[in-house]
Every structure is written in C-alpha cells, then in structure tokens.
Amino acid sequence: MRKILYIFLMLAFSVSATAQRWQSNQPFHSEKLGQDLPYAVVLPEDYDSAEQNKYPVVYLTHGIGCTPDDWNDKYIQFENTLTQLESEGLGDMIYIFPTGFNSYYSNTYDGKYPYMDMFIEEFIPFIDGKYRTIADREHRATIGFSMGGFGAMVLPLRNTDTFCFSAPLSMSFRTDEMYLEEPLKWWNEQWGSIFGGVDQEGEGRLTDYYKAHCPYYQFTKENLEELSKVKWFIHCGDDEERLLIANDDLHIQMRDNGYQHEYRVGDGGHTGRYWRQCLKDVLPYLEVVFNGTSNWKAPQAEITKAEVKADEDGGTVIYIAYNDLDDAFVSEIADIIRSTEGSGALTVVPCNLQKTTLEKAIDAWEKKHTYIDAQVLAFGTAGREAYALQGRFSRLYFDNADLLDDETQLYPHPAKFWYMSQTDDGPYYKDMGGLYKACKKTGADFQYRVRDGVSDNRANILTGINTIKPYIIY
User: Fold this and answer.
1) Domain of 459?
2) Torsions phi, psi for 432 (to 5 deg)
3) What is the pTM of this model?
4) Within a domain: residue 413?
5) How do residues 114-144 score in pLDDT, each as one tens digit?
6) Per residue in 268-279, pLDDT tens?
7) Angle at alpha carbon of residue 232, lines to 430 and 117, rounded to 5°
8) Are 261 and 348 part of one and the same domain?
9) Does residue 221 sit in the same domain as residue 80?
10) How far apart are CA 58 and CA 65, in angstroms?
11) Which residues contact residue 404 at a Cβ distance below 8 angstroms, ignoring those fewer than 6 apart?
12) Pairing verdict, β 35-36 and 29-30
C-alpha cells in the first residue's frame, strides 16, 4: 500500500509540475490603456535552476473573441505540443501570451486606444524586466492565429527594429474587394472602429490609416530593404474560405516583389487542430532564426513503396505527364503510385511529352486496353496539356505545374477532382494559386498544398508525391 501511495504521489507531482509550466492570469497593468491586461507565460523547464541563462522570447497572439488561455485549450494544446517538440530537440525559449481583446494589436485610427504603443513601449519592457529574456530584436518573435495572425504580422511590420520574426497562422485580413463587400455593421465593429472609415461604403473604407497597416500596401518593392529585416513565415489551411485567398494573394505579391519568405498551405481550416500542426512547422524554424542561421529545411516525409502491382485492364489508369524529367525517375514515381492502396485495378502510364503529345499517348493506350476511369498527374510545363484535356479525366493532380499564361482565365470543371501542390519557391506559383481560386469559384472538389522547397528537385517531387498519394482513388 505504501508503495502504491508513493507512485500515486509521484504521478500527481509530475502532472502538477508539468501543469505549472503554463502560468495563466499573470498580472500586468497598462498606464497607456488604463486597464489590466493579464497574460500567460510558459518558461523553460530549467528556468529556476539555470539562473545564469537568458532566453529568446516569443509573443503568441490570440484570435478575436479569445483569451491567452485559448492557446492551451484542448485543440491547440500548446503545452503538450511544446513538450513533444522539446523531446525532439527544440531548444529553450520563453513564451508570452498577451491579452489582445479585439484590437487587431493596432492603435485605433483616432488615437483613443493605442494598443500597439502599449505593446511596444510598456508590455515588452515589462516582460524584459520581469524575465531573463535576451532583450534584443534578434531574439524576439511573434506567432499568432486568426486576428492574432494579423497581430503577428502587423507588430513586426510596423516595428522592424523590435522583432526579427513573424509567423501569422490563418491570418485574418481581406483583399480590398472583400473589405468593400463587408456588411456595414460587421465593417464598423471589426474593421472601421480600428482603421477608420466608420459608416463608410465603398472606397471610403480604404483609408490611409488602413493602408498603413495592410500587408498588401506595405510589401512593395519600395519597402523591400526595410521589411526584409524580418523573416516571414505565413501558414494557412486550404479549407479556409476567404482567408486563404487573401493569404495566397499576399504570397504571390511577396514573390513578385522579391521578398524571401516561408509559405505553407496544409490540410485544414480555421481550427485549433490546424494551428497545433502549424506550430510543429514554425517553432523548429524559429529556433534556427534565433541561432543566426538560415539553412533550416523541413523534415522530408519518407516515401514508401510496397510491392509493385502488375498493370491490369478494366480498372483505373493514371497518366503521368512530363517533359523535363528523367524516364527512370518517372518509372520510380510510377512504382510509388502503384503502391497506393485502392479497391480496384490500377495502371500507371508514363507519358514523355518530349516524344509525343498527351492526347496521342492516351489514344494509343486506349486502342489496346480497356479501362473504367482515367486520371492524370502532371509536372511542370506538361500541366498545360493535362489541363487542356481535363474532360478526359475524373481526377487531375498537378505538382509545380504550368497551366495558362493568364491564370485568371482558368476554369476547372466542377465535376472533376483537382489536386494542386507546389513548393513555396516553385516557378508556377501563380498557376497553382490561380487554380485553387478558380476551384473555389466553380465549386469543384479540390485539395491545395504548399510545402517547403529544397534545392534537390528529386526530393521536392518525391515529397509532393507523398502528399498526393492519400487522394488517389481507384
């Protein structure tokens, strides 16, 4: 009995000790705002014992209608996520979770609620004085979700001398066109009260104050040198409605204007589960930023190949369309696709478009074989032929593919399934983003992914195939 009691007490102590890392409702009073703004904090496990150590600090900003504790709810599970990452080698940092109310972490246009001034001039000095932070911009970062994603963007955007890193997750902001369409009540409550244009319709909403805080108006060629002082990491789920359109457009603008940045699109929506996965991408990258290096690469998923199935007639055929890949490599890709688990027969037909057209290759194969369903996987410039023949396929998969000279003219058939994936430094970023937006317009079923680009093109392609495999149906 004594031994059992001892074990129980040790387990209870262990749980209690773990829980103590998340410290909620820490007191802070702002003179500028004239109110209390409680915050939460997570300190390194050895913070109390390693008294000589100082640590980088990360400010994690919450969404509208939330509190700091929402970072540690049953969905985001910040403390558990951090423990997992630390077990995999993530280094020590101090994590601060401020109260943001519904401020968008900005000063109001009329000066009556100077939230950003409070954050920069009161809150950060308070944190640096209370905890053993490394109190310089090179060791200070922001991460935020939804409205907090805008905060994680706008705080460094307006204070490049204070932060070195920004990671907006599912950043809540809109294109100009979307803002103009907002119902007046919603516009006044969420946007106009902060950025001006209260009770305005149309262009009157796009005030100079709004433009001074809007990423579209700031990530210009003129601001490249100043804003490139910050490392940017944008993350958004493909199940988002308007937010992914806005985030994807910003990625394209940053690419066009020469901004180095990380961009990811994963499977998910506006949920804590998605943001928990985002943290597993962002925090290891951030540690490398704090350490002063820039050669971090996301871990590549392992490509597994089961025993290759023999091609059979009567089932599904997948054409691999390519024109700038080695035939032997494409044969390996075909083997990987054949290892996909399905319920029927599967045939994979490589089509080297340097030797023939895709249409001729399809016609030649169909003359000699029977099939129930046809699909296509296209790489690079072969994407154009695959897109043009969309009527012949039920499912179309594109990876870093070229489609049209004017991506706004894309019209994916709504009865087809579309899968588009790319690396964040891929050459056809407008095509892949354009196809995603076109799928939204036509109502087509789709999946969209953006992954980390590496210098090894073979590794890029194999990683892309790994993301496509779960969506191959036969």
Assistant:
1) 316-471
2) -70, -45
3) 0.92
4) yes
5) 999 999 999 999 999 999 999 999 999 999 9
6) 999 999 999 999
7) 130
8) no
9) yes
10) 21
11) 384, 387, 410, 431, 434
12) antiparallel
